[in-house]
Automatic annotation (TrEMBL):
UniProt-recorded name of the protein: Sugar transporter SWEET1
A GO term for molecular function: sugar transmembrane transporter activity
A Pfam family that the UniProt record links to this protein: MtN3_slv
Record-stated family: Belongs to the SWEET sugar transporter family.
Gene3D superfamilies: 1.20.1280.290
Locations listed in the record: Cell membrane; Golgi apparatus membrane
TM region positions: 40-63, 75-93, 99-121, 133-153, 159-181
Membrane topology: Multi-pass membrane protein
C-alpha cells in the first residue's frame, strides 16, 4: 500500500524510509544465513523479500525530494552489509562458528528492523497522529514476525525465534497507537463560512 501511495501521489510524504531500508538489509542478511544453513524456506522468502524491498527503495528514491539523504542512508547500510559479508566469508573459516555469528548478526538486524517504525514515536504522541505509520505494514509485520517465531520454534533455532518476538510486541504497540489515535481524527478541518 505504501508503494501504491507513492505511485499515486508521486510523493513520499508521510511514508517512512527506514523500515524499507532495514527490511532490505535484514532480508539480505537472512538470505546469507539461509544459504549457509541450506534452508530453502529462508532462501526463497528472503530472496523475494530483498527484491521487493529494493524496488520499494528505488521508488522511494525516485519520488523523494531529498534524494541525497536517502542515498546516503542506503549506501551506509550497504557498507555495513558488505563489511559483514567480508567478515563472515573471509575471516571465519569454521562453518558452525560462521553460522552462529551470522545468526547473531541477523538477530540484531531483525530487532532493529522491528524497532525502526517506532523511531517516530515521540512525534506520533506529540501530534496525536498516526499518519506516518502504515497500518498495512503493521498488520504484515505482526503476521510475519508471528510466522517466523513459530517457524523458529519448530526448528529449535533461537536465531530465528528470539529476534521475531520484538516484531510481535512492536506491532501490538503500533496497533494500540492506531486505536488510541484513529487515522480519521487527524484530518485537518476547513472552517465553515457563514
Amino acid at each position: 500500500s505504501d508503494l501504491r501511495q507513492m505511485l499515486a501521489t508521486k510523493s513520499v510524504e508521510n511514508i517512512q524510509f527506514l523500515p524499507f531500508l532495514t527490511t532490505d538489509v535484514n532480508n539480505l542478511s537472512w538470505l546469507g544465513y539461509g544459504c549457509l544453513k541450506q534452508d530453502w524456506t529462508l532462501i526463497t522468502v528472503n530472496t523475494i523479500g530483498a527484491a521487493l524491498q529494493t524496488l520499494y527503495i528505488l521508488a522511494y528514491l525516485y519520488y523523494s525530494s531529498s534524494k541525497r539523504a536517502v542515498l546516503l542512508r542506503s549506501l551506509l547500510l550497504l557498507a555495513v552489509l558488505a563489511a559483514g559479508y567480508g567478515y563472515f566469508t573471509l575471516l571465519i573459516a569454521d562453518t558452525q562458528t560462521r553460522l552462529t555469528r551470522l545468526g547473531l548478526f541477523c538477530s540484531v538486524f531483525t530487532v532493529g528492523m522491528y524497532l525502526s517504525p517506532l523511531a517516530d514515536l515521540a512525534k506520533i504522541v506529540r501530534s496525536k497522529s498516526t499518519r506516518c505509520l502504515s497500518f498495512p505494514l503493521t498488520v504484515t509485520t505482526f503476521l510475519a514476525s508471528t510466522s517466523w517465531t513459530l517457524y523458529g520454534l519448530q526448528l529449535h533455532d533461537p536465531y530465528i525465534t528470539v529476534p521475531n518476538v520484538p516484531g510481535i510486541v512492536t506491532s501490538v504497540v503500533r496497533f494500540w497507537l492506531f486505536w488510541w489515535y484513529p487515522p480519521g481524527q487527524d484530518k485537518p478541518y476547513r472552517p465553515l463560512h457563514a
